[in-house]
Amino acid sequence: MNRRPLELIAMHGWAGDSRAWRPWQQAAARRGWSWQSGERGYGQLPPHTPHWPEQGGPRAVIVHSLGLHLLPAEVLAAAQAVVLLASFGRFVPAGPRGRRWRQALGGMGRRLEAGDSAAMLNDFLREAAAPAPVELLPAGPSSGVMPAEGVERLRQDLLLLEQCSAVPPAFPTSARSLIVEAGDDHIVPPESRVALGEALPAAERWPLAGAGHSLLGTDLVEPVLNWLEAGC
Fold first, then answer.
1. Which of these, 10, 36, 132, 139, is most buried using a 10 Å CB contact count?
2. Which CATH architecture has domain 1-232?
């Protein structure tokens, strides 16, 4: 019996946009799968909120970093498989250890309010790309002129980063889950990576030693799609 094609929804993280998913979308299309990319609209691309079709095949979501918290609750809740790339439930570690991260987020927010968005994003993207060169990152919001409403969304989502305290309540606990953890992540605190695994003990975990937050050079597309295909 032929399997129904997968329905995939992907969501980028903070300071990113949906162009980063192009290799994934192309690979999914070669398999005959449906693909939608959520778009927050920080830069030149208009915001887009994805929705599941009324009828379709198995449903899976792929998120990077804050993307887990940017997905609509109804989309996340209906997923039968969830792939979490360099993601987290709680971002700022609890207790005194979180002070450094709260201060960093506050400083980034002040730079946005002061009109220093371009330089601030360049600093952030260097850390997100590391240890790989920042030039390897795909085009994103900082590649062009950012509209005022996009900068405001960046500011709002910095506040969301600080407020994230757990995996979203809509997370489908019965779904197959895969955590892809960047071993040299300069963005997500180590405690937050550990906490995500503890929050999702049934999830399969792929630790990638030496990989940075943006997972550059990890060749994940086909392995992740194979993982989805094997279980759907």
1. 10
2. 3-Layer(aba) Sandwich (3.40)
